[in-house]
């Protein structure tokens, strides 16, 4: 495609497609009609600009390697590419470090007026901005000592520091995602029903706790309303708005409230700050209920679908589920038999094939990170993207397509790791009901991580190719203008081996077992210790399915379903409603108590050492040997010497108990509790 017209048409069409794709993503996670424009537009830019940067790197490669005005593939004039890089980069920079952090705190402030929200947002971000400017001051001092106090180094320093901060987070997340994504496909190629059943008690407990927390806050709001008589008119209206507002309603019978349920007391003096804090906690609690309700519904629906797939192995027929909203399940061209073949034969095979393919791609990325400094000609990414014609490196349309796929896979692995990390608090992406602060935070991460990943991909190419690109002249030379920045750019990505190895060998799971807390959700070792078993999860899922069937037959809805293809939930109410049946809290407490007792017993058994277990087995052998009748009487004091009669009440079995408790087992850590006739296996 030697003409510039082809590149211009491709750029315009790509811009339209990117805009449509981002709007569909926003429509899936946010209600577009009710989301304010001041939030929707920055989030839209934070998603659209990074996708444009990913598409701009292949165009930059082809445009920089053209000779005599001719290029292979899609290209644009260097001036157009440079202006595009400037606009996209600086907009992304402002969104990452200034606009989205302030906007996230603005929508999460809980205050009523825009002025109070802005003041709260500035105060909340003051520490974050001070840390940022402090790092910038240290870097500026280093540059001034190295090169002298000149103002021309300020811009390169800002760009280099922003790149380094993003690169640290990107490498850690990328290393985890390169292992987690292909392993997810390989482990879930078959029926994973038991894994879902093991996970069900944990999700159900989180949902119950979130409902109780929201119930507590609703009760606190009612108490606050009863105390509003002596407040100003503005504060009374504000409290009424807090009580009536919100997108989630919880219907809980009064009988389900535990007897020890204590509400937070209302202070004697009610201030604006206190009301704002209450509103903020209430909004977060509503979001938490929405989040875990969606997660629980998704888990139940998935388990129900997997059970139908298991049942179809006998009949060779699979009927579509009424709760499955995917396009494939609604397709009328699939007969029950072809649907059975699709879900039971085709999909598992495709998951295995794609899992192996992505595992090879992940290994290629890690290998390219390791050899890009010592032997760049051995980089798999460089070999697949760049081809040499008469000794000159060229990037054609095929190379551009492959490079786009490489960058997209790196970004996908990095962003997928955000869902596995547990240190982000209550932030989550919920279809149709994502909290505004969570939307700002996730879009901020997309904008912050894309630039380091795209330039890190550019470092996989040979030096003679990299230094010709506009991206290198715009950003790369500023990163490498100091020896420290150049060394960091080339050496630090090697540390991708650490998170990759930690994920591959389940280090996070072992750390969680030792410390009781882990950074990543490690689902590879399905341990039900202390969190319920798969049988309990199966019972919970069956109860939920039976409850839905009973509610539908009675003309009621347990929970209002959320249609991902509409801006409002279905049903007569605008707000989705969750109904907690009576006794749910008691069942939850009983379930947690049973799991705690089982976990305590398992922990006590696990604490026994080898000598204690050996003593148990020897004692069982000796106790179960048939002893002669005269042996118990041997060595016993006669009655005239003060001996005890075994036939007296309260002394039955005392000799055997003393024999068990005073044996040699006490020297090896044996417990001094009677076995009650039980045999240690």
UniProtKB/TrEMBL annotation:
Domain of life: Eukaryota
Cellular compartment(s): Membrane
Main location: membrane
Coiled-coil stretches noted in the UniProt entry, renumbered to this chain: 193-241
Membrane topology of this protein: Multi-pass membrane protein
Short name of one Pfam family: LMBR1
One Gene Ontology term, aspect cellular component: membrane
UniProt similarity note: Belongs to the LIMR family.
Record-given protein name: Uncharacterized protein
Species classification: Eukaryota, Fungi, Dikarya, Ascomycota, Pezizomycotina
